[in-house]
Amino acid sequence: MSEDCGCPVGLTGANCADRVALVRRAFRLEWLTIGWMIVEAAVALTSGIAAGSLSVTAFGVDSVIELLSATVLIWRLSVEIRRGQVFAEEAEARASRIAGALLFGLAAYVAVSAVHGLWQHQEAEMSLPGLAVTGLAIPIMYWLSRRKLAVAEALGSKAMRADAMESLTCGYLSVVVVIGLVAQWLAGAWWIDAVTSLAIVGFLVKEGREAWSGKSCGCCEPAAAG
Q1: Which residues contact 204 (CB under 8 A, 6 or more apart)?
Q2: How many Cα atoms within 13 Å fall on the side-chain side of residue 183?
Q3: Cβ–Cβ contacts within 10 Å for residue 118, how many?
């Protein structure tokens, strides 16, 4: 099989076409992610800083990390399209480690921000733009994460699985932000967004370790190999 097909050695015909179709589907998902993350990051950071909202600002930082992760995946997929899966293995390892590092960075930021907010009794003002963008992120990130996980399993890509988990985490954070802002607005519960944010740190660290070490839960073995 020729390398420019983007298939592993020994795959021909329909198997080759199937893998190329999966890679192109992954491309579309990552470009959709980049487009939404640009909007999400801009709105969340601007409105979060303006309102002095820790949770909305943290959500904006998460959006920037997700944007970087999607960019890394675009690079990894480009290597496979140009040079084939054999040459993409090295890119896969690098992309997986970068995705793991980004997950660690996100976990550290969430933990530090939450502890700082609790220590300072930091209360966020209601941010309507922040509430709107986080509310929209819930269904969007759920849809993206499920599609990415399915493609990651079919491709056997740990890096894309890590990226999918970042998308899922972004969705979880959006739920946290919405609940925190509404609860604080209705009941004056200034601490709720910080406490609920801490609950996902362990999840982030676990996924980061798997991506960094190159291990997975077993769901991402190449489908074509069997």
Answers
A1: 103, 104, 106, 107, 110, 169
A2: 15
A3: 15
Q: Where are the domains of the chain?
A: 11-213
Mean pLDDT value across residues 87-98: 72
Q: Which residues contact 151 (CB under 8 A, 6 or more apart)?
A: 22, 25, 26, 29, 157, 160
What is the fold, at CATH topology level, of the domain defined by 11-213? Alpha-lytic protease prodomain-like (1.20.1510)
- What one-character DSSP code corresponds to residue 7? -
Backbone torsions φ then ψ of 10, nearest 5 degrees: 100, -10
Q: Which of 59-63, 74-78, 106-110, 219-223 has the lowest mean pLDDT?
A: 219-223
Task: Summarize pLDDT for 43-86 with one digit per residue, the tens.
Answer: 999 998 888 777 788 788 888 888 888 888 888 788 777 766 55
